[in-house]
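Hello, quick one for you while I still have it in my head. My current little project is about how a certain protein chain folds up. You're getting the sequence in one-letter code plus the fold written as tokens. Would you mind checking whether the tokens look sensible for this chain? Here's the protein in full, and shout if anything looks odd to you:
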Amino acid sequence: MNVIVLIARVVLVAVFAVAGLAKLADLAGSRKSLLDFGVPASLVSSGAVLLLVVELACAIALVSSSWVRWGAIGALLLLTIFTAAVAVNLARGRRPDCHCFGQVHAAPIGWSTVARNVMLALLAAFVVSQASSAGLDAATALSSAASIGQVDGVVLGVAVAALILGVLELWIMAHLLRQNGRLLLRIDALEARHGGAPEQAQAAGLPVGVEAPAFKLPALEGGETTLGALVGQGRALLLVFLEQGCGACDALMPELALWQRTHAERLLVVPVSRGDAQVNRAKAIRHGLDHVLLQSDREVASVYRVAASPSAVLVREGLIASDLSAGADAIRALVLWATAPEPLKKGARIPSLGLADLNGGTIDLSTLLGRRTLLLFWNPACGFCQRMLDDLKAWETSRTSAAPDLVVVSTGTAQANRSQGLRSRVVLDSQSAVAQLLGSGGTPSAVMLDEQGRVASDIGVGAAAVLALANSTTASEEVPA
């Protein structure tokens, strides 16, 4: 009987140790799970910490021969509470995610969850009932195991070793999955921006011109905020959708705070996050971020068809005013487009404009110094662009040393632009922010920058004007110093 009790103890120790350590590695998920299960918001943060402490205490007590009875009683009480909570939610038709093992395993609850908890509760009850014999320490129990046969003793030893290794493996997985989760969110953003998943990218976002879906969300500063209240302030509204635990979202927060200050007169930047309110509040305070709204799940992100984080969309006068921009670079371009001043005049130096290229890098147009550079505004879906594509490729092949460098500033996906087969560097400007800044109203069109990064020509519109600029050996007019 001592051997059976030992096996039951080892199973319970493994379960509660993994559960406690996994919750420690994923406190945000634990808080969300408690909130989803109906725990009052004021108790969620302290409850998540208390739960992992009690689980680890039960695991430690089950290892000690002196405390095994109390460890088993604690495990039985926890499992009873868990089972009741799951059953109540299922009876109400709710299936929140169970973060029982943190990021190691999180899935909607079901009756299989109840069955698993009941089986573990029976093990805990068995250990409680055998407390007198369970007081044996591990060495004594293993010695008793040897008395029932050498083979059985070896099997038991292997089983115990396997369980210990399993605990270590799950603990390592918790850390790896925490990091990988952030990477996957960034990959989602990159695919949406560069066209790596075209079906998903096409479905993301609402069409420009439709009415923006109304919402009412709690604000971190207190109270509730509606879309109508935000639109009613008379400024363009930038909704930026963030995720707790998303590294790219955290990296963007300082820029969001900067945009809130520098563009306050023209643009209202409103982050829409989710997760634990205290965690979000701490980040907002650290970065000086205002107007942060909090979803309980993804109820607003879903109706705005947000497929990746971070993402942003512009709303003007209650209508969707831009395509959904996914990823930090696309959001920067959207802000540039939404806040663009009057077009630059000849002689003006181009400002710092970071745009993503087709290889995942970034090019800052203000660093194009030392040689003349022709900025060609392009759209793979433009029929006029396609009609001049062969001539442009021929120019790339036969260009002279006196010809300017060519940078193609294009809309469309990375995949669509790769299919053009251009040799020159192509950067993506989904909102045509650079074209607007330089006064270009269509494609194909182009403008020349001189060696100091200043606008050195008028906008050339159409294939003939573009090729004339490309073949010029000097600026068309003298640029003032």
User: Anything to note?
Assistant: Confidence is low (pLDDT under 50) at residues 133-156, 191-203, 476-481. The two ends are 94 Å apart (CA to CA).
